[in-house]
Amino acid sequence: MFGKLLKYEFKSTSKWYLLITLIALGLSVITGVIGGSATNGFVNMETNSMQMITGTLGILIFGGVIGLYLSNYYIIIRRFYSNLYGREGYLTWTLPASPHAIILSKFVGALVASLYCLFLLFLSGFITIIVMGAVIGQDLSPVFSIISEAFSHSIAYWMIIWWIFTTASGILLFYVSIALGQLFQNRRGFKAILFGFLLCLVLSIIGTAVNPFKDSYAVVYALVYGNIDEFGVNFIPGLIYEVIKIVSMYFTIHYISKYKLNLQ
């Protein structure tokens, strides 16, 4: 049943992520064209014009990244709430599936969608570089060589693993906040937001003790003296902490959904 639920999850969200993909790729092309055109004209361009174009590029890039992640999390939160604790909850919980299958299908679907958004972010960056190179008439392939060189170090893979685990715990933080909020009769949305804020604050404070980047001096030292691969072991305490968070939040959601479900 888990496979069917996961398949339905992908099918239900595919149209939204297709739209997000088209918008992201379109923005990357526009950014590449503007950036390439500006590069060609920088020599004869006035300071005000340069600042305006630079600001436009910054807004496009920053706005695109923020918009991508906000759209992703909006879809994730809305589907979890509406399918499990909203109007569709009655139908969902009468399915011949265990609470584990229902919750895991939502969680895995959300995690895959978040990974896809990260891939889309890199793809958009590559397209922007390619378009800029075509506009200015220069070969920007050395940029890709620098990127591939970065992935020759183990630290890059440690960071990817770190991102996956922190993303997973972030998704479950949204879920557990919603689950705790639905325990109340009134103002569930407000209380879910309040729980989310408090949990994020407390867990972040605790997490600073095991954050691999807490010691900025050690990070700079590893970068300057070429011991960056040895820095990877600093991720282990943080990853253990993320696993504890993931397991704790997941079983909290499972317990509330199975024993304290309170649909309106």
UniProtKB/TrEMBL annotation:
The chain crosses the membrane at residues 16-38, 50-70, 107-135, 155-180, 192-211, 231-253. It comes from the Bacteria. The keyword Ubl conjugation does not apply. Keywords: ATP-binding, Membrane, Nucleotide-binding, Transmembrane, Transmembrane helix. One of its GO terms (molecular function) is ATP binding. The keyword Transmembrane applies. This is ABC transporter, ATP-binding family protein. It comes from Streptococcus parasanguinis F0405.
